[in-house]
């Protein structure tokens, strides 16, 4: 963690204020260095007051997403978020992380962008990513899993998103298989999992996550207005993207640890409790193939088990779901 991030973390740990000398000690730097970090944080939009009695006090944080802020919230021992970048703009954060993966970057890297010019969703769809309104980010993982087990990561990520949104907003979204999060039947977030693998070996998995946070209805493209929502629309209040990002990285790390520990049964149970797809009649389009049946369960790798009208079980690993009943 950089000294500026450590300083921010110390200010947050002491909302009542912290003395300059204590900051020097904690960070192992001089008073002049503390002062210079305070000044640069102020320039970045943090309101920090200084008084002889209370020392330094963090009063407010800017609404822009800042790497120093997200780094200051990272907990020691957490893999996801061990390196965090925030870009003003890019084509797609999945492209950024996939480039880093090719350059052998270790797992845990997270890249956020304030805006994506070519954000993409599943099935080749575009993903609207207006500046500063949502969380658009990608996570680099290098799990020791077989390629067929990587669908577990999508279910685990969906759980993490549910818990993070619940802890920050009080609203519990529903999961629509495989990776849509819905509030009142409208999509609020999606996950795009991209994998690079050899026959037996996974080289990297990129979790691309998009969450509509503070858009108003008119800020959604016209064709999405009836099917998409934001956390602001659902709660009636603006939501702090930094608080949500912190909760997301924490919950993603927790779920990732469960998968690596081989505890997919617990992950699948939690997933099933939040999933609106199970028990329903579903039509699944997989490119040229269409299957109809009742969604019964997830298998041990996170694939959906569908009982068709002929009583056969079909194992589905991806596709577009339309729920009938
Ligand atoms: C979907 O529901 O279709 C998945 C949407 C995933 C969108 C995110 S935004 C960050 C990352 N970068 C992308 O280009 N896509 C994912």
Describe the structure.
The protein starts with a helix and ends with a strand. The protein has helices at residues 3-13, 20-27, 31-43, 67-72, 93-102, 151-169, 231-235, 241-260, 264-274, and strands at residues 47-51, 55-60, 83-87, 109-113, 134-141, 174-176, 180-183, 186-197, 202-212, 281-286, 289-298, 304-308, 313-316, 320-323. The model has no long low-confidence stretch (mean pLDDT 94). The chain contains nine helices and 14 strands. With 325 residues, the chain is an alpha+beta fold. The longest helix is centred in the last third of the chain and has 20 residues, at 241-260. The protein has three domains: 3-60, Winged helix-like DNA-binding domain superfamily/Winged helix DNA-binding domain (Arc Repressor Mutant, subunit A, Orthogonal Bundle), CATH 1.10.10.10; 67-274, 2-Layer Sandwich (BirA Bifunctional Protein, domain 2); 281-323, SH3 type barrels, CATH 2.30.30.100. Strand 6 and strand 7 (180-183) form a beta hairpin. The strands form three sheets. It has a seven-stranded mixed beta sheet with strand order 3-4-5-9-8-7-6, with helices on both faces. Strands 13-12-11-10-14 form a five-stranded antiparallel beta sheet, with no helix packed on it. The protein has a two-stranded antiparallel ribbon with strand order 1-2. The radius of gyration is 21 Å and the shape is elongated. It is 32% helix and 27% strand. Bound molecules: biotin (BTN).
